[in-house]
Specification:
Layout: H1 5-18, E1 22-26, H2 46-56, E2 61-66, H3 71-76, E3 84-87, E4 92-95, E5 98-101, H4 103-107, H5 109-123, E6 130-133, E7 138-141, H6 150-162, E8 168-172, E9 176-181, H7 187-197, E10 204-209, H8 215-220, E11 225-229, E12 239-241, H9 244-264
Parallel strand pairs: 1-2, 1-10, 2-3, 10-11, 11-12
Antiparallel strand pairs: 3-4, 4-5, 6-7, 7-9, 8-9
Helix pairs in contact: 1-9, 2-9, 5-6
Length: 265
């Protein structure tokens, strides 16, 4: 059973209120915005945008948006200063004087682009498939395809990756197959990198995400407040919230708590 916002707050409020510094990580699709059939459609609603702006203004709170989207795409959907943006599952990072591109992923860009061309050709007869090359990773979206085609799509992607010359892996997601460089870098490593670079390793880390790729962070961040968004039964996260509106309620409460603390300081 999914926990309500009030239940999660009751569990974590003491840790948050007593934390001098907080490093907050938020996935985008499925966490800040609902999953949509067209991956180009999601946009933040004004209320969530206002809450993120309030969070970004807190001196004791650092906010990172971490997503499978390319970093230019991710930034274009938010465009708030004071945030850190981590795209391609944390393989590219910028903001707050940080700039990082994972070297092994960068070196495989041409190989990945050619692979995407091959997969597009193989899956052209299948309606509802979108192959998205994102520079350092790729996504094969099949949300608009019929259920009967899923096995055919997966088999085609797996075969193409297997014959691509090595160094690339396919990971399943929510109605998507992610193709990523097999470098051992993932969202959890990106969280650790950001915290270390900014001296945030002694602060309270909070991470909210909905997808399989977020499980890397959940499992790595043993001392963090980790929150799974959505109805998936199996997760390494400590807490759950049902959907993006519940995430916004939690973030609004967090913003109020940090604003009150800042005003008293």
């Amino acid at each position: 059973m999914l926990e309500t916002v009030l239940e999660v707050i009751a569990e974590v409020k003491d840790r948050i209120r007593h934390a001098d510094r907080i490093s907050l990580f938020l996935d985008f699709d499925g966490t800040l915005v609902p999953i949509e059939a067209d991956p180009q459609s999601p946009r933040l609603d004004p209320a969530t945008m206002d809450t993120l702006q309030t969070l970004s203004n807190q001196e004791s709170l650092l906010t990172t948006i971490i997503s499978g989207r390319a970093i230019e795409d991710l930034y274009a959907r938010i465009r708030l200063k004071g945030l850190i943006y981590a795209g391609n599952h944390g393989r590219e990072i910028f903001g707050r004087n940080l700039r990082f591109v994972e070297p092994a992923a960068f070196a495989r860009q041409k190989q990945l682009e050619l692979l995407c061309d091959e997969i597009r050709t193989k899956l052209r007869p299948v309606d509802g498939v979108l192959v998205e090359f994102k520079g350092l990773t790729a996504s094969v979206h099949y949300r608009r395809a019929t259920k009967s085609c899923r096995a055919e799509i997966e088999a085609a992607v797996r075969a193409a990756v297997a014959c691509s010359g090595g160094g690339l892996h396919m990971n399943p997601g929510r109605k998507v197959f992610e193709i990523v460089p097999g470098t051992g870098w993932h969202k959890g490593e990106a969280v650790r990198w950001i915290n270390n670079r900014l001296g945030e390793h002694h602060t309270l880390t909070i991470y909210l995400g909905d997808d399989i790729s977020d499980e890397y962070a959940f499992s790595l961040l043993q001392d963090a407040i980790t929150i799974k968004v959505g109805s998936t039964r199996v997760t390494c996260a400590k807490y759950r919230l049902p959907d993006p509106p519940a995430v916004h309620e939690f973030l609004l409460w967090l913003a109020i708590q940090k604003t009150l603390r800042q005003s008293r300081a």
